[in-house]
Design brief:
about 30% strand, seven-stranded mixed sheet, 7 strands
């Protein structure tokens, strides 16, 4: 968790969104330990009570106080300092449209962080959904074509990396 925070470096006054968040376990845990002003979670399969259950679970487990405002599935995303996509980039059918939405939602100099399992020497498939996993350079190329500058890459573990892009 600290490794992701060190990579992301958000501030307490930042507005963050996470796309494809599921029940928000990663996001809730991160913002519990490293609060932001606002966290918007986007996942059409998730209900508000699922997010509240995640908050309740982690606050009870850690004894920490939840300080971040939360919204779920708003009409639109706007004026964001960071957008996170955890292990979901390979699942988006229309990534070009998603990149346009991400770019328009970010403040100037806003950050996108992708955490993604990747192919390294040959094309692999995701164990959970069976979809093809990208090579690192393919992801970088997509973002740069959308005029989002690749800032850095960090290895997360033997199968996944973090990629950071700036508007």
């Amino acid at each position: 968790m600290k490794e992701f925070y060190d990579f992301g470096q958000w501030q307490k006054e930042d507005r963050i969104a996470s796309i494809g968040c599921g029940y928000g376990w990663w996001e809730v845990s991160l913002c519990l330990h490293y609060p932001a002003q606002h966290l918007t979670l986007v996942d059409p399969l998730v209900e508000q009570e699922d997010i509240q259950d995640s908050i309740d679970y982690f606050t009870e487990k850690t004894g920490l106080v939840w300080q971040t405002e939360v919204a779920l599935n708003p009409e639109s995303l706007q004026k964001l300092d960071q957008i996170w996509v955890f292990n979901a980039w390979h699942e988006f059918e229309d990534r070009t449209a998603m990149l346009a939405k991400i770019k328009s939602a970010l403040n100037e100099n806003g950050i996108v962080i992708i955490e993604e399992e990747i192919s390294k020497t040959e094309r692999l498939q995701h164990d959970g959904c069976g979809k093809d996993l990208f090579f690192e350079q393919e992801i970088i190329d997509e973002f740069e074509q959308a005029e989002l500058q690749h800032v850095s890459t960090q290895v997360k573990d033997e199968v996944a990396i973090y990629l950071k892009f700036r508007k």
